[in-house]
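Onboarding guide, step 5: your first structure request.
Type a short instruction followed by the sequence, for example:

Predict the 3D structure of this protein.
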Amino acid sequence: MTTDVARPRHRFSGDGWTLEKYESEGLTVFAMSGEFDFAVSPKLRQIVGEHPPSGRAVADMTAVTYCDSSCLQVLLGLAQRLRDQGGRFAVATSVRAVARPISLLRLDELMPVHPTLEDARSALDSRS
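The system replies with structure tokens like these:
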């Protein structure tokens, strides 16, 4: 059995943002930090396409300071693909600039928002 520490992590970064993808206890985590805007969305789409999760995934956006609609659209596409495959997706953040647009646009029906990664994991586990 491979421990989470020994599992590969994929790290990507650009001007003002980083994204790290890793597996943790059967959950794919996309740990994001910085600003995700229109200039970043093509790279985000590419990363998610090249490193797709299966089953359960969380976008850990607790360190994201800004996320525009183009990046939310990428995450929504990921959530829909997982849902179509019988998987589940959630967002972890308490950052108002991220959580509020998700709520206002009613995207939280497909990608529910939880304040922490642990809360998102628990919610996904309870829906098993």
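Each response can be followed by summary notes, for example: The helical segments are 41-50, 69-84, 96-104, 117-126.
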